[in-house]
Amino acid sequence: MEYNTDKKVSDIGDNGAMSIKVGGKPIALVKYNGRVYALDGKCTHKEGPLGEGRVDNGRIVCPWHSGAFDITTGKAEKNTPWVTNIGTYKIRVEGATGEIFVEM
User: Fold this and answer.
1) What are phi and psi of 21, to 5 degrees?
2) Which of 94, 87, 99, 83 minimizes the C-alpha distance to 28?
3) Predicted TM-score of the model (pTM)
4) Per-domain residue ranges for the chain?
5) Average pLDDT of each block of 10 consecutive residues along the chain (104 residues)?
6) Structural fold of domain 2-103
7) Which of 36, 57, 39, 48 is nearest to 83 (CA)?
8) CA distances to 4, 40, 65, 94 from 91, in Å
């Protein structure tokens, strides 16, 4: 199912992130090199808000304990018992308006 996030590409800072809820689920929207990605919004360690993390070289880094995830695949930088892969979601950007839709 596709959801309108009520966000636009311009709402996200360059190489930045934001936390939203889509269908009641926390999601991190990440903009990296002009492209937008959608990932699970909680770190697998202690559920830190990934949308409040920093974007670093194609990764989103949790603001709480520095767990890092590839923004294109959701793969954890270090596969330890407390930092495991997260989900990623397809997005669609509406042309002229820049509205972001997430498929879940």
Assistant:
1) -120, 135
2) 87
3) 0.94
4) 2-103
5) 97 97 97 97 95 96 93 88 91 94 96
6) Rieske Iron-sulfur Protein (2.102.10)
7) 48
8) 10, 13, 27, 10
